Amino acid sequence: MSARRGSTSRRSRPVGCLLLIGIPILIIVVVLLLWYLLAGLLRQPKPGPKPPKEPTSQSATCPDVQMISVPGTWESNSNDDPHNPTANPVSLMLNISNPVEQRFPKERLDVYTVPYVAQFSNPIAIPPDGQQSYNNSRSEGTQRMVDAMQARYRECPLTTYVIAGFSQGAVIAGDVASQIGAGKGPVPANKVLGVTLISDGRRTGDTGPGQPIQIGAVPPGVGAEVALKGLNVPGITMTGPRPGGFGELADRTYTICAQGDLICDAPREALSPWNIMGSVGALVRAAGNPVHALYNGFVVDENGTTSTQWTVNWANGLVESAPHPPHS
Questions:
Q1: Compositional bias (Polar residues) spans (predicted)?
Q2: pLDDT for 296-314, tens place per residue?
Q3: How far is CA 19 from CA 6, 11, 248, in A?
C-alpha cells in the first residue's frame, strides 16, 4: 500500500509544477492582451465611395478651394474649432494656414484645420503620462480628415483641395493622400491640387515612381516609422513606408525634412524594433527634440525661404491658379 501511495505522489508532482508555471504565464498573457486593447489598435479608414457623375455647377455656398491643415503632436485637440483653431496658439501649421486664409475671400478658399487629440503617450512611462496613445490619436486624426473631405465632396463636388500637415499631422495627411493617389480616398485624385508634408514620419527619402518631391537639402535618414517598421508595442504601431507611395498624386506631393530631426531623418541603426525599450524612448524624445520644433525657421533654399514660408507661397500659388467652378 505504501509503495502505491509513493508512486501516486511522484506522479502528481509534475502536474503541480505545470500548474505553478502555467498560471503566471496565463496571467502575463492576459495582462499583455488587456494592455494592447486599452492602448488602442491602429484603425485605417475604409475606401471612400465611388464618385457620382460630376455636375456642371455647385452651390454658391461652396468654396472654390478647400485647404486641409493637419497640426502635429500637441498642436490640436478633439474639440478644437476647425475654422478657428485655438488649442495651441503656437502651432506650426498656423504659420501656414493663417496667412493663406487671410489672402483670399471666403468664397475662394475655406481652411479646415483637422481637430484631433494629437497626443503621443509614452507606453513605458512609470507612472503613466495620462495621454492618448499614438494609435488612438493617429486613428482619430485620419478619420476626422477623411470625414471632413467626404462631407465637403458630397456638398461641393467641384471644389479642389490643398493638403498640408506637420509631424503626426504629416503622417495623417500623407496617409490620406496616399489613399487618394491609389484611387481609394475620400475625393478623386484629380480634385487634389497638391500636398506638402513637413517632418513626415513615413518619409523614405527615395526618388522614383510614387515618391514625393523633396524640398531643401535632402537628409540621409528615413522616417521613424520606416526605421522602426515592425515595431508593435501597446499603443504604437510603426507601419513602415506607404505601399505604392503617393500614386497619382506623387507629381504634386512635396516633403520637407530637416537633418537631425529623428521623426523624419532617423538612421536605421539608431532605432531598432529589436531594442524595444531604447527605440520607444528615442521615438518619444524625438517628438520634442529642438530640430523638430524649429521648422518655422528652417531654411529650404538659397533665398533664405523657410519651410513655412515656402509652404505658404506654394499654397497661395495653387489657390490663385485653381479652377473657378460655376455656381448655381
A1: 74-88
A2: 999 999 999 999 999 999 9
A3: 21, 14, 58
Measured CA to CA, the distance from residue 224 to residue 207 in angstroms comes to: 18
Q: Are residues 78 and 130 in the same domain?
A: yes
The count of structural domains within the chain is 2
Tens of pLDDT, residue by residue over 127-147, are 677 788 999 999 999 999 999
Percent of the chain past pLDDT 90, that is, above it, reads 65
Region class of 245: left (phi > 0), else alpha (psi between -120 and 50), else beta: left
Give yes or no for residue 222 having a pLDDT over 60. Answer: yes
SS3 category, 133:
coil
- At position 302, the amino acid (one-letter code) is E
Sorted by sequence, the CB contacts under 8 Å of residue 308 that are 6+ apart come out as 92, 95, 96, 295, 296
Average pLDDT of the chain, as a whole number: 87
Catalytic positions, written as ranges = 167, 261, 292
Confidence check: pLDDT of 5 > 60? no
Q: Is the pLDDT of residue 270 over 80?
A: no
Please say whether the beta carbons of 68 and 74 come within 8 A.
no
Q: What does the DSSP assignment read for 311-328?
A: HHHHHHHHHHHS----B-
In whole angstroms, give the CA distance from residue 236 to residue 129. 15
Q: What is the CATH number of the domain that holds 228?
A: 3.40.50.1820
- Identify the H or E element spanning 197: strand 192-198
Residue 164 sits in which domain range? 55-321
In a domain, 188, yes or no: yes
Q: Does 70 lie in the same domain as 31? A: no
For residue 311, the Cα-to-chain-centroid distance in whole angstroms is: 18
